[in-house]
Design goal:
The complex is a heterotrimer of chains A (175), B (440) and C (621). Chain A has 175 residues and is of the alpha+beta class. In chain A, 43% of the residues lie in helices and 10% in strands. In chain A, strands 2-1-3-4 form a four-stranded mixed beta sheet, covered by helices on one side. Chain A is elongated, with a radius of gyration of 17 Å. Chain A starts with a helix and ends in an 8-residue tail after the last helix. Chain B folds into three domains: 231 residues, NADH-ubiquinone oxidoreductase 51kDa subunit (Rossmann fold, 3-Layer(aba) Sandwich), CATH 3.40.50; 84 residues, Ubiquitin-like (UB roll), CATH 3.10.20; 101 residues, de novo design (two linked rop proteins) (Up-down Bundle), CATH 1.20.1440. Chain B is 43% helix and 11% strand. In chain B, a hairpin with an 8-residue loop joins strand 7 and strand 8. In chain B, helix 5 crosses helix 6 and helix 6 crosses helix 7. Chain B starts with 30 loop residues before the first helix and ends with a helix. The mean pLDDT of chain B is 94. Chain C is an alpha/beta fold. Chain C folds into four domains: 89 residues, Roll (Ubiquitin-like (UB roll)), CATH 3.10.20; 141 residues, Alpha-Beta Plaits (2-Layer Sandwich); 184 residues, Rossmann fold (3-Layer(aba) Sandwich), CATH 3.40.50.740; 117 residues, Dimethylsulfoxide Reductase, domain 2 (3-Layer(aba) Sandwich). Chain C is 23% helix and 18% strand. Chain C is built from 15 helices and 27 strands. In chain C, helix 8 crosses helix 15 and helix 11 runs parallel beside helix 12. Chain C is globular. Classes of the chains: A alpha+beta (175), B alpha/beta (440), C alpha/beta (621). At the A-B interface, helix 2, helix 4 and helix 5 of A face helix 7, strand 3, strand 5, strand 9 and helix 13 of B.
Chain lengths: 175, 440, 621
């Protein structure tokens, strides 16, 4: 998958916002992931060309940070915190429940309908609301299996992902 | 844009005296509300009536110490920057809060973003920087938007921009999103990430004050540290120093999480005992249970036992019992929890978040995880106690490039030190009486 | 600054790293990530030492500069234990496959483990596994299990070569070195990562499994592939050239060589090489072959055409010049593959002086192709010394990807005019300025560019470096024997070395060829004689900055093969020239006396320095 001209144009406009061109790599990858849902080789190559590095540089950066996806994810990707504070309050049970509910056997696997994928993540910094998860650029707090069921139901009813897009954060980049 | 959700912490009646004094005010994140309660007066005071050195002087007088983890005196840190040479210099705000059990920077940003913006402006003026970069962790979407909106509001209102408050001190604040790497909380790794690289800590010297972001002098401060500045400038450093102890003045915002009845963010004067924080403010353990183990400052601060709850919260008292103030994230676990399993979870975290640059951390974390897995699977041998010891010695003792390795080593070291019988039970008898009792 | 290291006082300049100070007095501080040509990073933590004054923890000697009065303890119990622990960590996942590892025998990990490690391993966990070995180009293999992640290779790529096709992927213990999207490496500088690798993770596929380091001998020679004259070690075993490695000369190559120099050597050992003189395709003695040639070419004037190889030595060129001044007077002489640049300029810029340039201008040349290691030196000047770079080319070249490099484009064919217009360019107003120029791979008029560059250099007080392409182009130009670009119209042709670009001209009545391999047009030759290669030939080259350097061949020519100077001297005898050099030193003395540019030949090559004493490390814990 390659990038649209529109996104490429936005990427080319990034460098002047930073003191050095390499600072634009991650904001550019944000734009890629926003458009394609993941980072493809073709898109990373396009980013590299636009930012005057070899694609290997982009690949090295992309594989370092856990928020970049180099494999496809579901339309709603669930980041479930299971670090200690959340684990103490039932994160493991929650993860098992989510996997069963969306019908996947492994983390990172995309559900058959393409709607969901789930991964356990390290502390998301909302420990007083444990257990919690992040999906579609939003935190969801004080989770229980029942709350998960409600969320999943809501997302299943929103098959087009309109809500997800509406709630998406503003485009990356500096001010 | 609405605030996140129900506030949990020292708002309203239990509001703290400094950072959270205005919490509970409706729509506090809006500029108009903040201005109504005296917002940006400290910035006006600093910029229009004080010399940069005077600002630094007030901060030095306050005795404020960094709230990110290391607890280094803030004013002293500001003094490390070389005099301006005409080239760019930066204030970089560490908003990459990722220490397990720590959520206070998030709490400050989503509820009171203008207080942070004002603090950043004051710091910029003090060190004569015209650009600030807020490095905010990528998972903080709403917080990013709220801070961005606050910056935009402040710019429109003329608090920052080409001529803030009509002065010739152009100043701008930029946001930069992280992308999921705990190591970016380490200041030099943060700088690498800000420069668009793989976030691997730099060897020091040179220190960021001399050669930081994009090779230029840089001041790095944490969100909470900077959020404290408006109060200090408004009320004076001496007033701030009246809170807390002599060496750890002021208040700090603690996140209490885990096995307590009212988890939340609480501002508390330093020096008050943790029992006040955990039992009085956070509601204490659940009925029928007692606190067995707790981490006083994120999981990187060496673990303490339930008997140590009366420890005063100042950094010196913690250091005296082999721990540290750390990030202010207090994780509490009660008597149902197996310490070996907790340690395993934390080592998984450190292994996952090791950047891979230096050998001990890259190899040691993973080696520990594999050893814990074997022990927890009931396949431990008597040699594993020595193995754990080997790994923690290799990780700690300052042999790693940054503090992450030390922290990982301390988890092993101090859980073994304080709960050795649990380790021995796992390793030698291949059972866990704690979990067996909890299941029963 | 004076400090003591394990009780030995040493005085070094301010800013020196402890690890370098220790080298001076032969105290071994083991390192993996540290390399003196790369920025220190403090990643491997193997160089831990105890400092006083200093914190109560071991400190990395590779990142800590010395201080006056500092006491460094390499052998204190704390330092010794720290390093042994680090080595144990390194070996947690490293396979114990030294018996089948090419690095065995010259492996720092192996050596350091013996000298600094624990005597036994206490690791119980299974080792991590990766697919191996992984070809990462036709010439290099990667074994990720052996890798200790010192990042020398990736740092070299980014810092020195300004390329990022080799990087680290993933993080933590999952980190591994990878080429971009697993594509083969493309860089012309890739081979240096083999020399840099402190373990057996990056190995040469060309040399792989050929020999053990201790079974080989090596000579300190010079690369014959281009005009830069990088210093190399040529490794020999049982009469075969086994491999070529870099030999650091800070004034020329700074320790790097390009892939042509490193990997283009296997032809030396080829069984297909010509070994026997032939006359009319039947084997013949040298005397017969040379007298046939002499009889055919003597006194032919401009009807004789001679093509000479790019890597002709100064000595061979000198002997040839004698023939051209005598029995072969008037012959046309060409050197295929050379530039159209004229002889040496007046104000030569030395390669090492690039380091001190404020501004570097590159005119009509792709330095990466023409003079690869000069390309790296320019990058060093920009990255490490803050030099400003201006490229003057019709198209962007590899330098232009670096932020801050300025580019001036011109219409192809108008390079000289573009150079003259640089006169008031803002970047040239502050010196020292160095101007590198080529002929755009033959697309531009080299003489016109040289004239324009000389004018500009004089106006602004710059120094210049012509980027000759042929190995000894500069040496041959100094003798003034080249007088054409083509042998068209010549009836008597003697080709030496690489094939003529346009083939053998029509209407040739006599063809003699001197070559190391058979070529199709040899079928038409009356006489074919075998040539030696750089691994057997004695002599010297003049590099593009005018420096004369000696070849030190590790191999003897296998009879009946003869050295180039011997053949030329015997050809001279056959042509009636009364001279008889007994050895190459005589040739060199005469050449030095006859040509100022070859004055350096009067000084015979210095013997190779003795190997550095093995620095003894700390006692084992």
């Amino acid at each position: 998958m390659t990038l649209s001209d529109h996104t490429l144009k936005e990427i080319r406009e990034l460098p002047p916002k930073y003191p050095h061109i390499r600072s634009a790599v991650m904001p550019a990858l944000d734009l890629v992931q926003e458009e394609l849902g993941m980072l493809t080789q073709e898109a990373m190559t396009q980013v590299a060309q636009a930012l005057q590095v070899d694609p290997g540089y982009v690949e090295g950066v992309a594989t370092f940070y856990s928020l970049f996806h180099l494999e496809p994810v579901g339309k709603h990707h669930l980041y479930v915190c299971n670090n200690l504070s959340c684990q103490l309050r039932g994160a493991e049970e929650l993860l098992t429940h989510i996997k069963e509910s969306i019908g996947v056997s492994e983390y990172g696997q995309v559900s058959a309908d393409g709607l969901f994928s789930v991964e356990p993540v390290e502390c998301l910094g909302a420990c007083e609301y444990a257990p919690m998860l992040r999906a579609d650029h939003r935190f969801h707090y004080d989770l229980t299996p029942a709350k998960i069921d409600t969320l999943l139901k809501e997302w299943r009813g929103d098959r087009e992902g309109k809500k997800a897009r509406k709630e998406a954060h503003p485009r990356a980049g500096s001010h | 844009m609405p605030a996140a959700t129900e506030l949990r912490g020292s708002h309203g009646k239990a509001a703290g005296p400094v950072l959270t004094k205005d919490f509970g005010t409706a729509d506090l994140y809006k500029l108009a509300v903040y201005e109504k309660i005296g917002g940006y007066q400290a910035w006006r005071k600093a910029l229009t009536t004080m010399q940069p050195a005077e600002v630094t002087g007030e901060v030095k007088a306050s005795g404020l110490r960094g709230r990110g983890g290391a607890g280094f005196p803030t004013g002293t840190k500001w003094g490390f920057l070389p005099p301006p040479d005409g080239g760019p210099r930066y204030v970089v705000v560490n908003a990459d809060e990722s220490e397990p059990g720590t959520a206070k920077d998030r709490y400050l940003m989503e509820n009171h973003p203008h207080q942070l913006v004002e603090g950043i402006l004051i710091a910029c003026y003090a060190i004569q920087a015209h650009h600030a970069w807020i490095y905010i962790r990528g998972e903080y979407d709403l917080q990013h938007d709220l801070v961005a909106a606050a910056i935009a509001e402040a710019r429109t209102a003329g608090y920052l921009g080409e001529q803030p408050l009509g002065t010739e001190f152009p100043i701008d604040i930029h946001l930069y999103r992280g992308h999921g790497a705990y190591i970016c909380g380490e200041e030099t790794a943060l700088l690498e990430s800000l420069e668009g690289k793989r976030a691997q800590p730099r060897s020091r010297p040179p220190f960021p004050a001399v050669k930081g972001a994009w090779g230029r002098p840089t001041l790095l401060n944490n969100v909470e540290t900077l959020s404290t500045l408006p109060w200090i400038i408004s009320n004076g450093g001496a007033a701030y120093a009246k809170f807390g102890t002599e060496k750890s003045p002021g208040t700090r915002l603690f996140t209490v999480s885990g096995d307590v009845q009212r988890p939340g963010n609480y501002e508390m004067e330093l020096g008050k005992p943790f029992s006040h924080l955990i039992n009085d403010l956070a509601g204490g353990p659940f009925p029928g249970h007692s606190i067995k183990v707790w981490w006083p400052g994120g999981c990187s601060a060496p673990v303490l036992t339930g008997e140590m709850l009366e420890t005063p919260s100042d950094m010196e008292s913690l250091a005296a019992i082999g721990s540290m103030g750390g990030s202010g994230g207090v994780i509490v676990a009660d008597d149902r929890r197996c310490v070996v399993r907790c340690a395993y979870r934390l080592l998984q975290f450190y292994a996952h978040e090791s950047c891979g640059k230096c050998t001990p951390c890259r190899v040691g974390g993973n080696w520990a995880v594999r050893t814990y897995e074997r022990v927890l699977a009931g396949e431990g041998t008597a040699a594993d106690l020595a193995t754990f010891d080997r790994i923690q010695t290799g990780l700690a003792a300052g042999r790693c490039l940054c503090g992450l390795g030390d922290s990982a080593g301390w988890v092993i070291q101090w859980t073994m030190e304080r709960f050795r019988d649990e380790y021995e039970e796992h390793i030698l008898r291949h059972t866990c009486s704690v979990e067996a009792a909890a299941r029963a | 600054m004076t400090l003591t290291i394990d009780g030995h006082a040493v005085t070094v300049p301010k800013g020196t790293l402890i690890v370098e100070a220790a080298k001076l007095i032969g105290v071994e501080i083991p390192v993996f990530c540290y390399h003196h040509k790369l920025d220190p990073v403090g990643a491997c933590r193997l160089c831990l030492v105890e400092l006083s004054p200093g914190p109560p923890r071991a400190q990395t000697a590779c990142t800590t500069p010395v201080a006056e009065g500092m006491t460094v303890r390499v052998t204190s119990p704390m330092a010794v234990k720290s390093r042994a622990d680090i080595l144990e960590f390194e070996l947690t996942n490293h396979p114990l496959d030294c018996p089948v590892c090419d690095k065995g025998g010259e492996c720092p990990l192996q050596d350091f483990t013996y000298r600094h490690g624990y005597p036994v391993s206490r690791v119980q966990e299974p080792r991590l596994h990766f697919a191996k070995p992984l070809p990462i180009s036709d010439r290099i293999a990667l074994d990720r299990e052996r890798c200790v992640l010192c990042y020398r290779c990736t740092r070299y790529y980014d810092e020195v070569a300004w390329e990022q096709e080799l990087t680290t992927n993933q993080r933590g213990v999952q980190s591994y070195i990878a080429t971009q999207f697993d594509q083969p490496l493309q860089s012309v500088f890739s081979g240096n990562i083999i020399d840099l690798c402190p373990v057996g993770a990056l190995t040469s596929r060309v040399w792989r499994f050929q020999s053990r380091p201790w079974d080989m001998d090596h000579t300190a020679s010079v690369c014959s592939r281009c005009a830069v004259g990088c210093n190399v070690n040529l490794w020999e075993r049982r009469g075969e050239l086994m491999r070529v490695t870099a030999r650091e000369n800070v004034e020329i190559d700074d320790g790097w060589i390009c892939d042509r120099g490193r990997f283009e050597y296997t032809h030396v050992n080829s069984p297909e090489r010509l070994a026997q003189p032939r006359v009319q395709r039947r084997p013949a003695a040298w005397e017969e072959a040379l007298s046939r040639i002499a009889a055919a070419i003597k006194g032919r004037g401009p009807r004789l055409g001679l093509s000479i190889p790019a890597d002709i030595t100064n000595e061979e060129a000198f002997l040839l010049a004698r023939l051209l001044n005598g029995p072969l007077r008037g012959a046309r002489v060409v050197m295929p593959g050379r530039t159209s640049l004229p002889g040496p300029p007046a104000n030569q810029l030395a390669i090492k002086d690039l380091d001190g340039c404020r501004t570097i201008v590159v005119v009509a040349a792709d330095v990466r192709a023409d003079a690869p290691i000069v390309n790296l030196r320019v990058k060093k000047a920009v990255a490490k010394s803050g030099a400003r770079l201006l490229t003057v080319n019709p198209e962007l070249i590899d330098f232009d990807r670096h932020p801050g490099v300025e580019h001036v484009a011109y219409e192809p064919g108008h390079a000289a005019a573009a150079v003259r217009k640089l006169f008031d360019h803002p970047l040239l107003q502050e010196g020292p300025v160095g101007i590198l120029y080529g002929d755009s791979a033959g697309a531009e008029d080299g003489a016109a560019i040289a004239t324009a560059v000389a004018w500009l250099a004089k106006e602004i007080g710059a120094k210049v470096m012509p980027l000759y392409r042929a190995t000894n182009e500069r040496g041959v130009l100094a003798l003034g024997i080249l007088n054409g670009d083509s042998l068209d119209g010549c009836e008597y042709v003697f080709t030496w070395g690489q094939a003529l670009a346009g083939g053998v001209p029509k209407g040739v009545r006599f063809l003699a060829c001197w070559d190391d391999f058979a070529r199709p047009y040899h079928d038409r030759a009356q006489v074919v004689i075998p040539a030696v290669t750089f691994a057997e030939d004695q002599g010297s080259y003049t590099n593009l900055e005018g420096r004369v350097q000696f070849l030190v061949p590790p191999l003897q020519p296998k009879p009946p093969l003869r050295q180039g100077w011997e053949v030329l001297q015997d050809l001279g005898l056959a042509l009636g020239l009364g001279s008889d050099y007994l050895g190459i030193f005589q040739v060199q003395r005469d050449a030095a006396a006859a040509y100022p540019a070859l004055a350096a030949l009067a000084v015979p090559p210095a013997p190779a320095p003795p190997p550095a004493p093995v620095a003894m490390g700390a006692a084992r814990p």
